[in-house]
Amino acid sequence: MKSFWEEIPVGGTSMNVYSSVPEGEKPLPAVIIAHPASGVAEFTQSIADRLANAGYIAIAMDLFHRVTDDMISDGTAKNAFLDDVEILSDVDSAVAWAASLDSINSDRIGIIGFCMGGRIAWLSAASNKAFKAVVPYYGGNLWTTRGSATNSPYDLAPNIECPMLFHFGELDQNPSQDDMRKIDKHLTELGKPHQFYTYPDADHAFMDFAQPHRYNKQAADASWPRTVEFFDAHLKHG
How high does pLDDT run on average in the chain? Predict the structure, then answer.
C-alpha cells in the first residue's frame, strides 16, 4: 500500500485529497471519503489506509479547502462555512478525477462518511449516480441544509439509487434512535435498500480514536468488518 497527497481541480480552484492505493493488479474499486469536523486528520487518513488494505483505492477529500485562516481567526469552526452546493461540486470533482484514472474501475465507486461526513455521504449518494454503495457513520442533521442549498439530504432520499449501510450509536442524539426509526421508515416506504446497525453504549463518533471520550472500541471493531463486507458485496462482487 502507498499513501500520498494530490491536488485535483474543482471548478476554478483546487482541492487536496489524501489517497491510499493497494499494491497489485489494477483497476480496482474505489471509495470516496467524507471527513468529520476534524478534517483529513489522522483518523480520516487511517480510514483511507484501512480501505486500501481491504483492496480499495481510497480518496479522502479536503472539504475545507475554501476556508481561510482569516475566516476562522475568531474561533469559528471550519464546518460553519460549508455549503451543500459547493460540497457536491467537490464530490463530483473527486468522482470525475477517480473515473479518469486507469487504476480505478469507474463502475465500482462507493462513498463513506463520518459525523458531518456521514451526512455528506448520504447527500452525495442522492446527488451523484456514480455511487454504487454508501456508508454513513452517525450522520446527523439530515433534515437541515447548508449554505445556498434548498433541499436537505432527507428531502433528497428518493434520489438515492445505491444500497446504504448506516451505523448508529445507541446513545447518540444526532442522529438519535428516534431519528433512526424515522429514517428507516422513510427509506422502507421509498423502497430503498438499506441496512441499519445500532451499537449498544456507543455515542456519536464512536469510531474516532482521536476522540477518546467518545471512542468505543467494541462498536468500532464490530462496525468495520460490516463496512468492508458491504463494500465487497456491492463494489467487488455486485
Answer: 97
Strand residues in the chain grouped as ranges (E)? 2-10, 13-21, 28-34, 57-61, 104-114, 131-137, 164-169, 194-199
HSE, side-chain direction, 13 A CA sphere, residue 80:
8
Strand pairing category for 131-137 and 104-114: parallel
Question: In terms of C-beta distances under 8 Å and separation of at least 24 residues, what long-range contacts does 98-102 make, across chains too?
Answer: 98/30, 98/32, 98/57, 98/59, 99/130, 101/27, 101/57, 102/26, 102/27
Total of domains in the chain: 1
Coil/strand/helix, residue 119: helix
- Which residues, 6 or more positions from 143, have their beta carbon under 8 angstroms from its beta carbon? 152, 153, 154
**pLDDT tens profile 94-122:** 999 999 999 999 999 999 999 999 999 99
3-class DSSP assignment, residue 16:
strand
CATH number of the domain at 32, please.
Answer: 3.40.50.1820
The pLDDT tens digits for 52-78 are 999 999 999 999 999 999 999 999 999
Parent domain of 37: 2-236
